[in-house]
Amino acid sequence: MKIYQVDSFTKEVFKGNPAAVAILNEAISDEAMQKIAVEMNLSETAFVKINEDYCDLRWFTPATEVPLCGHATLASAFALWKGGHWPKDKTIEFKTLSGSLFTSLDSNGLITMDFPANYATTTEGFDKTELESAFGFPIQEVLNYPAELILIFESEQAVLSANPDDAIIAKQAQNGVIVSALSDGGKYDFVSRYFAPNLGIKEDPVTGFMHTILTPYWADKTGKTSFKAFQASARTGEMQTELKGNRVILKGNAVMVFETDFIIPSNLNPINKIV
Predict the structure, then answer these.
(1) Of the residues 20, 60, 100, 243, which has the fewest C-beta atoms closer than 10 A?
(2) What angle do CA 176, 182, 184 make, to 5 degrees?
(3) What is the distance in angstroms between the CA of the first residue and the CA of the last residue of the chain?
(4) Residue 47 counted as domain residue
(5) Contact (CB, 8 A) for 148 and 178
(6) Annotation says 44 is catalytic
(7) pTM for the full predicted model
């Protein structure tokens, strides 16, 4: 089995969000995928099974399987093209737990991903006082998306300086807490970060899935449909996003860090289908 490590949503190695991409020659068990994800110890490890006209795709954090992951989808497409597993001029359809996702290369060489738009709703199931204490800034709006809590702040500085306690984040949200604000500068439209200790991730460097929620939100608030987004983690990352009907288009770059061959131990022999 070939495994690639790819930095997504960046043009520079050691920035953006690293993901492992395992190209499966045959189906392996859920247990095997989870153990490999623990061994890779990245925010997500993607498992790709190539078929004639599409690819099956699943994503695992070191703690659990997740239904959608943007940066590991981008990494998977990049690895398939870069490794010669899929023609560069052919759109990749990934069949996933979140339905079919489509990736292609645009005329500028950006990897383009077509995802379902996800819409957050207002919520009251949170402790605002505790959250404002954890972040040190007033919260403008609190929203909910299944298993996720979204905090909207008035200033970019609130997002940039965020350093919340893991225990508070773990208690307030099943998966994680998304924080966002409009950008104060001219280079980006909005900024964000994502904290998810319950998924085994203190802070995710760059989160494609999160932008399928934030893009419709900021489109509603600003009247715009296209954005330049910046995720202000320590590694940093950027992407272009666009709301098109009930779909969100995410565009970004990726770079290869390394590739290796991985021999699956005999006690983890294939037993399950990938999807």
Answers:
(1) 100
(2) 130
(3) 18
(4) yes
(5) yes
(6) yes
(7) 0.88
pLDDT at 254 over 60: yes
What is the C-alpha separation between 217 and 119, in angstroms, rounded? 7
List the structure tokens of 61.
């954090």
pLDDT tens string 139-151: 999 999 999 999 9
Structural domains counted in the chain: 2
Q: Is the pLDDT of residue 30 over 70?
A: yes
Judgement on whether residues 201 and 169 belong to the same structural domain of the protein = yes
Residue 240 C-beta-side C-alpha neighbours within 13 Å: 9
Distance CA(231)–CA(252), nearest Å, equals 12
At 183-237, the pLDDT tens digits run 998 899 999 999 999 988 899 999 999 999 999 999 999 999 999 999 999 999 9
Catalytic residue among 12, 39, 44, 124: 44
Structure tokens at 160: 């940039």
Which domain covers residue 237, as residue numbers? Answer: 121-245
Burial of 107 (0-12, 13-18, 19+ CB in 10 A): exposed
- CA pair distance 88, 100, nearest whole angstrom: 19
